[in-house]
Design a protein that fits this description.
Elements (H helix, E strand, L loop, with lengths): L3 H8 L1 H8 L3 H30 L1 E5 L14 E8 L8 E4 L7 E10 L5 E6 L11 E3 L1 E9 L2 H8 L2 H19 L21
Antiparallel strand pairs: 1-2, 2-7, 3-4, 3-7, 4-5, 5-6
């Protein structure tokens, strides 16, 4: 019986070598594709968390909460009821006709179920905020990352966002573009001794 395996391997040396060798560009493309996929997963997780857990992001433009939360920080906040506010919490309060304020709670005065008057103070401020805030819901800071707000603002620039979109699209197109090498055999029929062609 003829040894067909050796004859089969001799017909496809180029294909075997192509399967073993990968160019640096292919490794780079694979890594970037994995990074894009990870970014997509993170975005999906954040959207689900925002919808199901009432979680959102806020940016600190001033240093009133320094050094705990310096200017330029990005914070994750969760909406909670006035009944769940505790002294020491850092919360964001919406003010009609003004920008929201995010300071530390220094006093809580319950006003009934689901309502409270709270007194707040910025960690870097010499005194408490003028007056108290009547709230039913606030956004409590869960954790923050210093300087990350600058990156978010930069990425939200239309020119930067457009460039990243075009670059990612070009990378996907390049990664999946069909390739053909000159050493690929045109006759795919194995040269088996004694076999009819």
């Amino acid at each position: 019986m003829a040894d067909t395996s050796a004859a089969h391997r001799s017909q496809y040396p180029a294909r075997a070598s192509r399967m073993k060798r990968r160019s640096p560009g292919s490794y780079l493309a694979g890594g970037l594709m994995n990074l894009l996929a990870l970014g997509g997963v993170v975005c999906v997780v954040l959207v689900i968390a925002a919808v199901l857990l009432n979680i959102s992001l806020i940016m600190f433009k001033t240093g009133s909460m320094s050094p705990t939360i310096p200017a330029g920080s990005l914070a994750v906040v969760k909406e909670i009821s006035a009944d769940d506010i505790a002294i020491g919490d850092v919360v964001t309060v919406d003010r009609p006709g003004e920008l929201p304020v995010t300071h530390r709670v220094i006093a809580v005065h319950p006003q009934g179920v689901g309502e409270a008057l709270i007194e707040m103070k910025g960690d870097a401020n010499p005194g408490p905020d003028p007056g108290m805030y009547r709230v039913e819901q606030v956004r409590k800071v869960l954790w923050s990352v210093p300087d990350l707000a600058h990156a978010v603002v930069w990425l939200s620039n239309p020119y930067v966002l457009g460039s990243l979109t075009i670059g990612a699209s070009a990378l996907v197109l390049w990664a999946f573009w069909p390739r053909r090498t000159d050493d690929e055999p045109t006759d795919q029929t194995p040269n088996i001794p004694g076999a009819k062609r």
